[in-house]
Amino acid sequence: MVALNPIVYWAQNQKDIFLRLELRDVKDENVVLLEDSLRFEATGVGACGLDKYAFHFNFFESINPGKSKYRATDRQVEFSLRKENCGKWWKRLTEESLKLPWLKIDFDKWKSPEDFEEETRDILQDRPDILRQLQEDEGVIEPINYRQVYLFVYNMAQFIGFLYIFVVMMINYAKKGPDSMEETFSNVGEVFKFVQLMAFLEILHVIFGYTKGGLMACFIQVLGRFIVLFGCINSEPPWC
User: Fold this and answer.
1) Which residues of 191-229 are buried (b: 16+ CB within 10 A; e: fewer)?
2) What's the pTM?
3) Distance CA 9, CA 47 (A)
């Protein structure tokens, strides 16, 4: 009887390789962990129900079996494999660069505190190049970054607002020449005030870490433009 392959998720940090097998109620497991390979056999409930599951592969780099850990729970099987060369990021898990349909990236492990370590790491910040390469190798679509989507929409709204102001001013100037200056603020003032009020969101961007920069410098810049627009220009009486 040919054993089935369980779904295996893997992740890494600087010291360890993490494996998570989607296999419940494991029995009669046989684990052979060597410096350069891992062999696993067990009976359990996997993607195809209750059956015998197994896999075997050679590692991309060597590990330290003596400092590695293994545990089987009612819900899954977990490995924490200590790298022999700590601090080196692996380009892939297996020695051969083959796409294994049952081997997937564990995105939760990449971004969350490790079960066997106290430190918290974020691979998207630490080594985005490695994660991107892994996603390309496995044909995985990168999750939507809603922060980037929001910043794109915000900047696009600001761009459209100021573009509208510029176009209206140019059209009026082309029609009336210098005389159009008297009507400029009455034509574009409301839009100008709206986009300037939106600029206060830039302070929140810095507070919540959406953009980099000093909070005080950002606050002074936004407040300065607000004072000039609403305190000086908007308070002036209309031209006669």
Assistant:
1) ebbebbeebeebeebbeeeeeeeeeeebeeebeeeeeeb
2) 0.48
3) 13
